[in-house]
Amino acid sequence: DVNQSLIDDGLVEKEKIGGSNYFWSFPAKKDRIMQIKHEQTLSSIETLKTKITEAEARLADAKRGREDEDGDRAKKLARIAELAKERKAAEEELAAHKENDPQAIADLEKELQLVIQAANRWTDNIFTCKSYLTKKKGMGNKEAYRILGVTSAFDYPEDKIPK
Fold first, then answer.
1. Which domain holds residue 127?
2. In angstroms, how far is CA 133 from the centroid of its own chain?
3. Phi and psi dihedrals of 89, rounded to 5?
4. Does a structural domain hold residue 158?
């Protein structure tokens, strides 16, 4: 167990030769590993320093166009906020008037015609079923209406839709 934990930590090497297991450790190996880590840390520090200088340069470039030389920056930002509010109000007004859009009304009328046609088909089917029940099965009108689940006042929907 002790040897296995040392192997897992990389402090001891293991090799199976024949039927035996051989363990060894070189004192300079740990020093070399630490030296490699140190070099990697130094190189990462250097790359981070270059990234920091690049970021600072980009920040300076970005700030260059934002100097407030004549004091208008605050006024301009206020104007932008005001225009954003006006735009939002205009969009809300547009949304409120969208229901009166001629194209939307035309689309609704097309949909209404399709729905009326479908309702007329279903009404035709119900009247066909009523006719079948009364003529072929010999039922009375009231009994046929009861079976179909409609009243005697059942009629085509286009008579009730205003134009």
1. 101-148
2. 54
3. -65, -40
4. no
Query: Across 30-96, where does the E strand assignment appear?
Result: none
What Cα–Cα distance (Å) separates residue 137 from each residue in 130, 133, 134, 150? 10, 5, 6, 18
Distance (Å, whole) CA 9 – CA 15 = 16
- Could you tell me the two tokens for 60? 């300076």
Only one residue has tokens 């009523």, namely 130
Asked whether residue 125 falls in the same domain as residue 89, the answer is no
**What's the rounded mean pLDDT across residues 90-111?**
84
Asked if 96 contacts 115 with a C-beta cutoff of 8 angstroms, the reply is no
Q: Is residue 161 part of a domain?
A: no
Q: What is the pLDDT of residue 109?
A: 87
The string of pLDDT tens digits covering residues 66-94 is 776 676 777 888 899 999 999 999 999 88
Q: Measured between alpha carbons, how far is 10 from 7 in angstroms, rounded to an integer?
A: 5
CA–CA separation, 62 and 136 (whole Å):
88
In the chain, the number of structural domains is 3
Q: Which two tokens stand for residue 96?
A: 């409120």
User: What would you measure as the largest C-alpha separation in the chain, in angstroms?
Assistant: 110
How far apart, in whole angstroms, are the C-alpha atoms of residue 30 and residue 28?
6
What global pTM score does this model have? 0.39
Q: Which two tokens stand for residue 72?
A: 């208008």
Query: Which class for 22: exposed (0-12), middle (13-18), buried (19 or more C-beta within 10 A)?
Result: exposed
